[in-house]
């Protein structure tokens, strides 16, 4: 969303940012400006954490709305949208005419799917900059998005009772053309031969025929409806079990996981822990691959919902646009309904709980509480389901508001208490980019795994997956670098203000 966050008049912004609020001979102001300038250099190098540290030091030296606005943008780039929002609010409170801060706040609000609030900020900017085409265009685009989401939600409510299977029955499946030589279901069912053919077909940038794509969606809804919100997995003593984190539409890295670790099978089970789609521009290939293996091995291949398996995130970060480009809006609507049935968490051998996000804003949450969640809905902005999908660990005791603006951050004491209350050994979660593809926190009791290397073609991180055995739940980590992929940039299908 860098285009949103950039000011419309860069020269004017640079002049305003450089203008000191205190007399130029003020030594504190001079020191703060030097720190801010160093932060800007780190920002240009995409070293956002160091930029944040320097902006913070500048704020502590001599608070100024410019430093808050710049730190807001750096937090935005690290996807800490809650922090970005807070800093933009602070900048506006210090100078309520500061146009740049309104841009920053609009960026954070849009990243959280709060388009109505973002629209108010962009309207302010557009009025302040009536001759700036960029500002007017962004305001117009945001207004269109507000109207689009309102319309589609209204249609969605009208069809809440309409299952994917019924939608499929209402469709007239077109005949399969004679010249289609791609993968074909056998008697309407996924087979191992179909999956092997599909991986090769996708690797060569081909599209699965929509007849088979629709049928896979229909069968997935039927299967997922039989699943509980908390799925229990029994791993036999000597069997390996693999847990993967976010894939985010990076299909060629998904292929690499299977090359390293073997294709899924009855004896090589997998759990993919949410965020299969969005950002990466091969999300359609990823999701049909994962859905196909789930249908082939329903008791040995597991899928958990992530925060990106949702209507708002898919609208913003590319999946909806990709499905519409490769298939149709009708299919995008079908995905929304299927995602509502994805399980929220998995329990391995009654000792390891796996969820996409993390733990909770209240004590004494039991596994039965998780089993009782009615998940057939869009993720709410609070409560157990929200926190399973959005929360993050942090190193200090207790709970604090989320850096993302949704869910919470929970400390090691929260993890310990939850594990003791439920007689568990540790938790595995995903949801965060890690330099090594994984990170072990909270004295080994909270493990993050992230499986999209060089995330969005810019983060330089490794990917990782975890393996464990039924008789030895000690996690083992495998890391890997990114794989070459066709020259289609990440976010190629994203909403224009997000790309």
Automatic annotation (TrEMBL):
SMART domains from the UniProt entry: PP2Ac (SM00156), TPR (SM00028)
Entry keyword Metal-binding: yes
Lineage: superkingdom: Eukaryota
Region (Disordered), start-end ranges: 1-31
Cofactor: Mn(2+)
Keywords: Hydrolase, Manganese, Metal-binding, Repeat, TPR repeat
Bias (Low complexity) ranges: 14-24
EC number annotated for this UniProt entry: 3.1.3.16
PROSITE patterns attached to this UniProt entry: TPR
Residue positions of the active site: 308 (proton donor/acceptor)
TPR repeats: 32-65
GO MF, any single term: metal ion binding
Family note: Belongs to the PPP phosphatase family. PP-5 (PP-T) subfamily.
Name of this protein: protein-serine/threonine phosphatase
Lineage, highest ranks first: Eukaryota, Metazoa, Ecdysozoa, Arthropoda, Hexapoda
């Amino acid at each position: 969303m860098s285009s949103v966050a950039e000011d419309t008049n860069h020269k004017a912004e640079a002049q305003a940012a450089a203008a000191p609020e205190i007399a130029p001979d003020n030594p504190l102001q001079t020191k703060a400006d030097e720190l801010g300038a160093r932060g800007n250099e780190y920002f240009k190098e995409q070293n956002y954490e160091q930029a944040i540290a320097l902006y913070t030091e500048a704020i502590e030296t001599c608070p100024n709305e410019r430093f808050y606005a710049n730190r807001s943008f750096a937090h935005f780039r690290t996807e800490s949208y809650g922090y970005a929002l807070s800093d933009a609010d602070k900048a506006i409170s210090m100078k309520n005419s500061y146009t740049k801060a309104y841009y920053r706040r609009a960026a954070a609000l849009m990243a959280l799917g709060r388009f109505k609030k973002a629209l108010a900020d962009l309207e302010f900017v557009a009025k302040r900059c009536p001759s700036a085409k960029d500002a007017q265009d962004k305001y117009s685009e945001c207004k269109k998005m507000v109207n689009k989401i309102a319309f589609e939600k209204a249609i969605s409510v009208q069809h809440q009772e309409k299952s994917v299977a019924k939608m499929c029955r209402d469709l007239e499946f077109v005949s399969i053309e004679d010249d289609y030589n791609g993968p074909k279901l056998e008697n309407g069912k996924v087979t191992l031969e179909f999956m092997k053919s599909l991986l090769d077909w996708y690797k060569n940038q081909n599209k699965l025929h929509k007849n088979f794509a629709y049928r896979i969606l229909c069968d997935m809804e039927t299967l997922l409806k039989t699943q509980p919100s908390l799925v229990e997995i029994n791993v036999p003593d000597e069997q390996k079990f693999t847990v993967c984190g976010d894939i985010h539409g990076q299909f060629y890295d998904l292929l690499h996981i299977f090359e390293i670790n073997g294709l899924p099978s009855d004896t090589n089970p997998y759990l993919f822990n949410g965020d299969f789609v969005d950002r990466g521009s091969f999300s359609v290939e990823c999701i049909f691959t994962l859905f196909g293996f789930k249908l082939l091995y329903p008791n040995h291949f597991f899928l958990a919902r992530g925060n990106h398996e949702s209507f708002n995130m898919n609208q913003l970060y590319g999946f909806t646009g990709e499905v519409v480009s490769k298939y149709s809006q009708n299919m995008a609507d079908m995905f929304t309904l299927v995602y509502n049935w994805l399980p929220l968490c998995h329990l391995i051998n009654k000792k390891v709980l796996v969820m996409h996000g993390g733990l909770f804003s209240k004590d004494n949450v039991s596994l039965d509480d998780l089993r009782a969640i009615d998940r057939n809905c869009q993720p709410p902005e609070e409560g157990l389901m929200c926190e399973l999908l959005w929360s993050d660990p942090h190193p200090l005791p207790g709970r604090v508001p989320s850096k993302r603006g949704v869910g919470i951050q929970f400390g090691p004491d929260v993890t310990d208490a939850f594990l003791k209350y439920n007689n568990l050994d540790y938790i595995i979660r995903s949801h965060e980019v890690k330099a090594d593809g994984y990170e072990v926190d909270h004295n080994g009791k909270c493990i993050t795994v992230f499986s999209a290397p060089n995330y969005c073609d810019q983060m330089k991180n490794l990917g990782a997956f975890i393996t464990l055995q039924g008789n030895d739940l000690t996690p083992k980590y495998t890391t890997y670098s990114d794989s070459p992929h066709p020259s289609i940039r990440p976010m190629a299908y994203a909403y224009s203000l997000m790309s």
